[in-house]
Design brief:
Elements: H1 13-26, H2 31-36, H3 40-51, H4 60-73, H5 77-83, H6 94-102, H7 109-114, H8 117-130, H9 138-147, H10 150-172
Helix pairs in contact: 4-5, 4-8, 4-10, 8-9, 8-10
């Protein structure tokens, strides 16, 4: 399926610079950035949001697991493609990515064994944030507040919410995966 709308022929010079920078960093044609150029305020806001993303806190591994989980939960192929790219750089294995993709109810034994309690809780929290309707059982709230600092909770919540923003925007515009990686098969 093609995108819902075509890319604008001409961009605001500031946006052109932003699109160029995002494509240089990713090595891919960034159709989301190009389509947002139709409304510069949205493009600039999304660009600022993207530049302020968390990278290392609480850990690169937990953030990668949260991003992939939110991508899968929102069922966004572009997001899964992008957020599954180079998992080993964050210490996430291809097997863990495949297990996350298969995860429907409880974590499978293989994935659960490879994760510590903080990672399992971060994944459950990301799924809760990314599901409709939102549902935070008391046990999840208790685990999140027991295992993470207030700062880390805000980082986890905003990381999952950022993926949700992109998932909804990308899906609403009909944007297809950009070929960042081979998505593990279920």
């Amino acid at each position: 399926m093609d995108a819902l709308i075509r890319e604008p022929r001409r961009f605001n010079p500031l946006l052109r610079l932003g699109v160029w920078a995002s494509e240089r960093v990713t090595g891919r044609r960034m159709q989301p950035a190009r389509l947002l150029a139709w409304y510069p305020k949205a493009a600039i806001g999304a660009g600022v949001l993207e530049t302020l993303v968390a990278h290392d806190e609480p850990s690169a591994r937990i953030l990668k697991l949260v991003r992939v989980t939110a991508s899968l939960t929102t069922n966004c192929p572009f997001c899964v493609d992008m957020n599954s790219f180079e998992p080993d750089a964050a210490g996430v294995t291809d097997g863990e990515l495949s297990s996350l993709q298969r995860w429907v109810g409880d974590l499978d034994a293989e994935l659960a064994a490879s994760l510590d309690e903080r990672e399992r809780t971060a994944i459950a929290y990301a799924r809760a944030i990314s599901s409709t309707p939102l549902d935070f059982p008391p046990s999840l709230k208790a685990d999140v507040t027991r295992l993470f600092t207030e700062r880390e909770i805000v980082i986890l919540a905003t990381t999952a919410a950022q993926v949700n923003f992109w998932a909804r925007t990308i899906q609403a515009l009909g944007i297809q995966p950009a070929g960042f990686c081979t998505i593990p098969t279920a």
